[in-house]
Amino acid sequence: QVQLVESGGGLVQAGGSLRLSCAASKIIFVINAMGWYRQAPGKQRELVAIITSGGSTNYADSVKGRFTISGDTAKNTVYLQMNSLKPEDTAVYYCNARTIVTNSWGQGTQVTVSS
Questions:
Q1: Across the 115 residues of the chain, what is the mean pLDDT of every consecutive 10-residue run?
Q2: Among residues 22, 34, 38, 19, which one has the least CA distance to residue 83?
Q3: What distance in Å separates the CA atoms of residue 20 and residue 71, rounded to the nearest whole number?
Q4: Distances from the Cα of 108 to the Cα of 9, 39, 103, angstroms
Q5: CA 102, 6, 67: angle at the middle one, nearest 5?
Q6: What's residue 38's pLDDT?
Q7: What is the pLDDT of residue 1?
Q8: What is the dihedral of CA 70, 44, 83, 97, to 10 degrees?
């Protein structure tokens, strides 16, 4: 399994910004895609954004225009820039990495947006 370490969560007021980082290590197989998911209390985990090894991106409708996912292949790191945050963005955010044989998750980082 790829090891993923997330950072950058915290408490922010509505309208503010946060940047999440996820560093991957112990990579044996090529990572095909990395993404961010989130899970709010009482809700299912949902996709926030994903970026493929070719640079293609996809976003949940709820974050389009506010969040940007990017990657630094040299550092094996993926970022999630979150702007114009809303209280409904409050959740635990999880990093995910997929290879041809593995699907790995980070430990999660809490993002709390106050109104």
A1: 93 98 88 95 96 95 98 90 98 95 95 97
A2: 19
A3: 11
A4: 9, 9, 15
A5: 95
A6: 98
A7: 84
A8: -10
What is the Cα–Cα distance from 113 to 70, expressed in whole angstroms?
A: 22
Amino acid found at 81: Q
pLDDT for 29: 82
One-letter amino acid of 87: P
pLDDT at 27: 84
Sheet of 3-7, strands arranged across: 3-7, 18-25, 77-82, 67-72
Contact 31, 24 (CB under 8 A): yes
Main-chain phi, psi angles of 76, to 5 degrees: 50, 45
pLDDT, residue 17, reads 98
What single letter denotes the amino acid at residue 31? I
Nearest alpha-carbon partner for 84 in 107, 67, 62: 67
**Alpha carbons 78 and 72: distance in angstroms, whole number:** 6
